[in-house]
Amino acid sequence: MAPLKFYHYLLSPPSRCALLTIRNLKVEVEIIIVDLFKKDHLAPEFVKINPQHCVPTIDDNGFVLWESRAIATYLASSRGSALYPTDHKKRAIIDARLYLDQALQIAGGAIIYAIHAEGATTIPQDKKNKVYKILGDLNTIMEGNNYVAGNELSVADLALLATVSTVKGVGANLNKFKNISAWYKRLESIPGYQENEEGAQGLGKYIKSKINLTGTWED
């Protein structure tokens, strides 16, 4: 079987979600870099593969798929991994956390887009509040659990690690949330953690440089 083809850009939070899944499943992979800043995603050869021209995208022996959470659940399911168990109730909880991750990604993405694409030089308090509201919800949900969907690592942890590290990178203060902070520390030992950190910090450095921010939003 040929290696999984993975079209990837490290600064992209969704792409890092898929990469974390690949690393934790120990899938043999061929990584193809699609540099969004250089507009590689608009190249005709890539648009032919993915008409929505987004990363991440995979080609699993001819099966092409994009959207990070779809990729994560597909890879875990097709490899028979406990990261996305077959138990319907456990899977439903994981799916619920993936939807929460999507909400956090949208809230954080609104901040990033405004600075990167629209030239914003400050972050409005209401946008910060949206991020903190979702983080607060997650922190409450995690009370008494080691991971976001219970006490076992799942694809929801990988998706949320990619997103939480991103909002942290652009200035959100995780010290406000003890359960999230402990979980974040706990995930330092999983495969792909450091790669994800590099991407999150790289994006954070770029965004912060645009608004002259060096610490958290509260500094």
Describe this structure in words.
There is one protein chain. This protein is 54% helix and 8% strand. By secondary structure, it is α+β, with helices and mostly antiparallel strands. It folds into 2 domains: 4-78, Glutaredoxin (3-Layer(aba) Sandwich); 88-210, Glutathione S-transferase Yfyf (Class Pi), Chain A, domain 2 (Up-down Bundle), CATH 1.20.1050.10. A 4-stranded mixed sheet has the order 2-1-3-4, covered by helices on one side. Helix 1 packs antiparallel against helix 8 and helix 4 (88-116) runs parallel beside helix 6. The termini are far apart. The model has no long low-confidence stretch (mean pLDDT 98).
Concise overview:
The chain is α+β, with helices and mostly antiparallel strands. Helices cover 54% and strands 8% of the residues.
In helices, the fraction of residues equals 40-55%
For the terminal residues, how far apart are their CA atoms? 51 Å
Q: What would the CATH topology of the largest domain be? A: Glutathione S-transferase Yfyf (Class Pi), Chain A, domain 2
Give the CATH level 1 class of the largest domain. Mainly Alpha
DSSP strand content: 5-15%
Secondary structure: number of strands = 4
User: Please, what is the oligomeric state?
Assistant: single chain
Q: Just name the CATH architecture of the largest domain.
A: Up-down Bundle
Category by helix and strand content: alpha+beta
Largest sheet, described in full? 4 strands, mixed
Low-confidence stretches: none
Spatially, the strands of the biggest sheet line up as 2-1-3-4
Number of domains: 2
